[in-house]
Amino acid sequence: MAINWFKYSSPASFYFLAGKMIPLFTIAAIILFAVGLYIGFFVAPTDFQQGEAYRIIFIHVPAAWMSMFLYVMMAIWAGIGLAFNTRLSSMMATAIAPTGAMFTFLALWTGALWGKPMWGAWWVWDARLTSELILLFLYIGFMSLQAAIDDPRRADKAGAVIALVGVVNIPIIYFSVKWWNTLHQGASVSITQSPKMATTMLTGMLIMSIACWMYAIAVILMRTRTIILERERHTVWVGELQGVTK
Amino acid sequence: MLPAQPNGCNSPDMSLWVIQRDLLLAMRRRADVLTTLFFFIIVVSLFPLGVGPEINMLRTMAPGVVWVAALLASMLSLGRMFSSDYLDGTLEQMLLSPQSLSMLVLGKALAHWLVTGVPLVLMSPVLGIQYDLSTEALLVLTASLLLGTPVLSLIGAIGAALTLGLRGGGVLVSLLVLPLYIPVLIFGAGAVEASAAGLGAGAHLSLLGAFLLVSLVLAPWAAAVSLRISME
Amino acid sequence: MIWASWSDFFSMGGYGFYVWGSYLVAFACIAGEIALVFNRKRTLLKHLSLIHESTKEEKRNETTS
Prior knowledge:
Chain A is mostly helical. In chain A, 76% of the residues lie in helices and 0% in strands. Chain A contains seven helices and no strands. Chain B has helices at residues 11-28, 30-51, 55-76, 80-88, 90-96, 101-130, 135-162, 169-196, 202-230. In chain B, 83% of the residues lie in helices and 0% in strands. By secondary structure, chain C is an all-alpha fold. Helices cover 85% and strands 0% of the residues of chain C. Chain C has two helices and no strands. Chain C has helices at residues 6-11, 16-64. The longest helix of chain C is centred in the middle third of the chain and has 49 residues, at 16-64. Chain C is rod-shaped, with a radius of gyration of 26 Å. Chains in contact: A-B, A-C. The interface between A and C is medium-sized, with 38 and 30 residues.
């Protein structure tokens, strides 16, 4: 049987699909956050080097991963919206940006609070924190460009161009900043090296990352639904919906 | 009236034609050219007043200050790259012309570089002396600016095309384009630092050259796409 | 249970300020973002229902007059 891929690409049908999916992701996020925090605070042992301060890792690393992951997802959706002219993909990209910016800010904030006890300074011009700061500027650039353009179609496409140009530049920015100054502790969790961390620490962090992911999906779907309503306000189905939800 | 278009002109002639036309227009309003240059000079001269005349400090700061001032100066005049053509409708004619739009935008960006970038490059040794840079450092600074400023104009063309005709477009273009300038700034200022530290600026300058080549190819195409989006 | 007592837990080995500082801000960001999305939807629905009312009144006036 031929799967009709495009059934949910129309904003109307996606609106109801998202409505059904949001509760699932919300519940998953809540459970995973609870489990992750429990492991992070009550199971993971004290770090021999940093004492208890390292527990910030359970929110700092997931936030940093999410900020980069969401920017790439935003660029992908924006690219699809630009290439196939599908309004819903561009709406999704617009919906991702604020959550991505929030996670970037969170990564910077928790990074600074972790840096203070470990390196003795709130802000250290090290490669990762600096690239994270630049990533925040890229998010702000995307959001302010879209806010400055009134016509939603042009805003979507212009945002798509700046998102794609940005995603091409992220590796360049990262390596140039790394070349410029590398002070940050070597990647304690990188795909190549074996993790230097105790397994419970690692599992706690991975659970928290998945929890952040679930949360991000739930919030982004909610914002997408609002954007759909905003842009489809003149359509019939919103009118009926409106009648229903008085 | 547009100058007589060379008949049967294929696309490389097109960008040459645009460069020639833009330079002609720029020469008519020479003030615009000088404002960017004076902005560059004033900003570079402001720093010693703020930081103090201590010469060692100034010498270490010089490349960063000159490069940041070059960044800001070239970004200031980005708004004018397309706006005059956009307002009097020639931009629409350019969009409709059979010639490839990216070659046209390449011409525009190079014209912007000639008008704003080259004066900065020529002026930077003089300002370097103000910061007591050694002659070798001055040479590397000028070379890095020569390689870097076209990249600024090319990437800036994308920002200018995206924010065409928007209210508050000037500030917005800086928000879009500054993060993308950062690698050029790092390797530009780093080149002078590396040569001063005796490491030689070869690596930095070759990377700047790489940025230049990549943006020469990709930026006009991206700016052309952005122009079509803005002019829809 | 690693922690001897709740006060030990909150002091977090002397780093309480930093650890709780980051987790409180994390929680505030998440709660804030959810509040923003709900607020945006609520104001939109209110706005839409206003339009809905006004169009309905126009229809009623047309029919009665």
